[in-house]
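User: Hey, quick favor. My workstation is busy. Could you predict this chain's structure for me?
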Amino acid sequence: MRRVPRIALAGAATASLALALTACGGTSSESSSSSESKGAKGLAIAYDVGGKGDQSFNDAAFSGLDKARKEFGYKTADVEPTEGETDADKTQRLVSLAKQGYNPVIGIGYAYGPAVKEAAAKFPNTTFGIVDDSTVESKNVADLVFSEQEASYLAGVAAAKATKTNTVGFVGGVDVPLIHKFEAGFEQGVKDTSGGKVKVLSQYLTQTAQEGGFSSPDKGKTAAEGQIEKKADVVYAAAGLSGQGVIEAASAGKVWAIGVDSDQYKQEALAKYKDSILTSATKDVAKAVYNLAKSVKDGKPESGIVRGDLKSGEVGLADSNPVYQSNTAIQDAVKAAKEKIISGEIKVKTS
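Assistant: No problem, here it is.
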């Protein structure tokens, strides 16, 4: 269940909202004027590696920002990462946004943990958010986390029902605990559904994000091609921008891909591959970003761990592909598994 502890914070940011950022990385702002009156609120997000245009995690965050901008008249900024940046660079970026009066300020991705902790201590009256990290404990920080393993379990159910070769693949971007959750849920879903008859080929692209595991479509493509050569006919990627390469390889190999984070069947940049995207294991980063912005606007900022799961509807499987929608065997199996996870009958592993 989504747990949303809240704590009232004293007042909104009073600094003027500037268009240009002095921190590392570029920005695209939606502000209509160079300054705002006292008490005005704005929303800023700092992207994870891969940046805007990944058709996945970062783009989902932008969707939440865009919705808040349109609905609340928010002034917004979204800032790109830079190659090889340090924690100090990330901290400088968040501090610059807070100085300009943006509230809330959200780091998109677990790599922002140290930066959010430091920036939040410097600006106690600004609400900060961090996606995919639950370690920052501060009364002005919301840890926006998800039960990715639950959606991944359903992806495993779908893969086990869709495979004709009894071999499926998992491609993880970086070998870290967050992506282990995706792998664990997927493998468990495949095993439970097939009775162990379907083999899962797993591969991680890199050991660290700095090596490009979340930002290298070529690495994803090569990994998927290797799995397809070993007879995998469904490949699930949890690899950010690198997942685009997995989807491209699946299309070329005439096998199924399962997307991640966003409904990748609907992504314009992936339109030419969409017929190969069976489904996507989604997590509603957009809703998490939007909800945090709304909570600040309402004067009751979210704080502490804010979790989205199957029960809250914030993780799940996309059903945009008509082939997926019309496959009764997959639909029935996924529905049954979902009900058992929500009831607690199925306990999904996280590692």
